[in-house]
Write a structure and sequence with these properties.
Rossmann fold; 345 residues; ATP hydrolysis activity; ATP-binding; ATP binding; six-stranded mixed sheet; four-stranded antiparallel sheet; binds adenosine-5'-triphosphate; globular; nucleotide-binding
C-alpha cells in the first residue's frame, strides 16, 4: 500500500533494491517502499535494463516549426521510438469521486510538458500514476513501450528513471543537505562516501548552491530547499557505464515562491534539461520533464507544450504560445481568470 504526501520527493533508480544502512530513515521490509520518520511512505521507481541514453531516440526539437504541426493539430507524429511515457485511457476514482475519466497522452524524449487545469481536477494524481505511486483503476501506463503492471516495484524493468519532485521540497529534516541529495546513492550505489560527497557538491553547484552541504533543511530558505530537492532529483550514479534517460515530474515547483524566486526555479528546471545549460555551464541531464502548475510565469517560461485537464479529461493540448490565443472557452476562461465561462466554482 502506498501513501504519498506533499512532504516527499522522489527520484529513483532502484536497480537491485535498497540495502539497509545506518544512514537510512526507518523503512519497511518492502524494498520498493520505505517509511520516513515513521510518518510517511515513499515508493520509488524505475530500472533496467540500462540502455544508452541516446539509443533509439530521435531528439525532438521543440523550437522546430514542424513540431507546431505535430502538437498544434491532431496529426500523429511518425514513429514511436521517442515516446518515453504513455498514459492510455487512464481512469482513477477515490471512493465515489471519479477523478480521471479516460486520460491519454504521450511524453516524448526531449519534451518539456506542462499539465494545467483547475484545482482538484487530478493533475497531481496523474503525476503519481506516471511515477508508479498510484495505480490506475482502468487504462495503462507504458514506460518506453512496456506496460507497467500495478505500482512501481523493484522488479520493474523500464530503462527509464522517473523522478517526482513534490510541491514542498520534501527534504528529510534530520539529514544534512549532503545526506538528502546523496540519499539514493548512499543507499543504492557502490560509490564510496567521498565520491558521493564530491558528486553532491557538483550537483548542488549545478543548481546554484555552494557551501550548504552540512546544513540542515531548517537552515535553508524556501527557494534553497527547492533547489536542494531539484539537486536530489537529478543526481545519479555516474560510475555506471550506461545511463538511462531520466524524466522528472514537478508538482507545482513554484507554488508559494515570490515572482523572482519563481523565475529562478523556472530557469533551473530549463537548465537541467539536456537542451539547457546548468549553472556549471554543462548541458543538463534530464531527457524530458512534466510540470504541474497554476503559475502563468511557469507556463510561459518552463514548458513548451501544454495539456489541459478538466473534469477528468484532456480538453485541450497545444504549444505554450497557442494557449493565450486559443479560442477554446475553457482555456480562455482559465487564461484570463474570469468568473464567467464554462468552469464553475
Ligand atoms: N489519496 C486520495 N484519497 C482520496 N481522495 C484523493 C486522494 N488523492 C487525491 N484525492 C482527491 O482527488 C482530487 C484530485 O486531486 P489532485 O491532487 O490530483 O488534484 P489537482 O488537480 O492536483 O489539484 P490542485 O491543483 O488543487 O493541487 C481531489 O478532489 C482530491 O481531494
Amino acid at each position: 500500500m502506498v501513501s504519498s504526501s506533499s512532504s516527499l520527493l522522489f527520484s529513483l533508480p532502484l536497480c537491485g533494491g535498497i540495502s539497509h544502512s545506518t544512514r537510512s530513515p526507518v523503512y519497511s521490509a518492502n524494498l520498493s517502499t520505505f517509511r520516513v520518520s515513521e510518518k510517511r511512505e515513499i515508493v520509488c521507481a524505475c530500472m533496467a535494463p540500462p540502455r544508452n541514453a541516446t539509443d533509439g531516440f530521435s531528439t525532438l526539437n521543440i523550437n522546430d516549426s514542424s513540431v507546431t504541426k505535430i502538437f498544434g493539430s491532431a496529426q500523429e507524429p511518425e514513429g514511436e521510438s521517442d515516446v518515453l511515457i504513455e498514459c492510455r485511457n487512464v481512469y482513477k476514482s477515490f471512493g465515489k469521486k471519479h477523478i480521471l475519466k479516460g486520460v491519454s497522452f504521450k511524453i516524448r524524449h526531449g519534451e518539456a510538458v506542462g499539465i494545467i487545469g483547475t484545482s482538484g481536477t487530478g493533475k497531481s494524481t496523474i503525476l503519481k500514476i506516471i511515477a508508479g505511486l498510484l495505480a490506475p483503476d482502468k487504462g495503462d501506463v507504458y514506460i518506453r513501450g512496456r506496460k507497467r503492471h500495478g505500482l512501481i516495484s523493484d522488479e520493474e524493468i523500464s530503462g527509464l528513471r522517473i523522478g517526482l519532485v513534490f510541491q514542498s521540497a520534501a527534504l528529510f529534516d534530520s539529514l544534512t543537505v549532503r545526506e538528502n541529495v546523496g540519499f539514493l546513492l548512499y543507499e543504492n550505489s557502490s560509490m564510496g562516501e567521498e565520491q558521493i560527497a564530491e558528486l553532491v557538491t557538483e550537483t548542488l553547484a549545478a543548481v546554484g548552491l555552494k557551501g550548504v552541504e552540512d546544513r540542515l533543511p531548517s537552515e535553508l530558505s524556501g527557494g534553497m530547499k527547492k533547489r536542494v530537492a531539484l539537486a536530489r532529483s537529478i543526481i545519479f550514479d555516474n560510475t555506471k557505464e550506461t545511463v538511462e534517460p531520466e524524466v522528472i515530474l514537478y508538482d507545482e515547483p513554484t507554488a508559494g515562491l515570490d515572482p523572482i524566486a519563481s523565475t529562478v526555479v523556472e530557469d533551473l528546471i530549463r537548465s537541467v534539461h539536456f537542451k539547457g545549460e546548468d549553472e556549471l555551464r554543462k548541458p543538463g541531464k534530464i531527457a524530458s520533464y512534466v510540470v504541474v502548475t497554476h503559475q502563468h510565469s511557469t507556463i510561459r517560461r518552463a514548458v513548451d507544450r501544454l495539456i489541459f485537464l478538466h473534469e477528468g479529461k484532456i480538453v485541450w493540448e497545444g504549444l505554450t504560445h497557442e494557449f493565450i490565443t486559443s479560442t477554446n472557452p475553457i482555456v480562455q476562461q482559465f487564461a484570463s481568470g474570469s468568473l464567467d465561462g464554462p468552469i464553475k466554482y
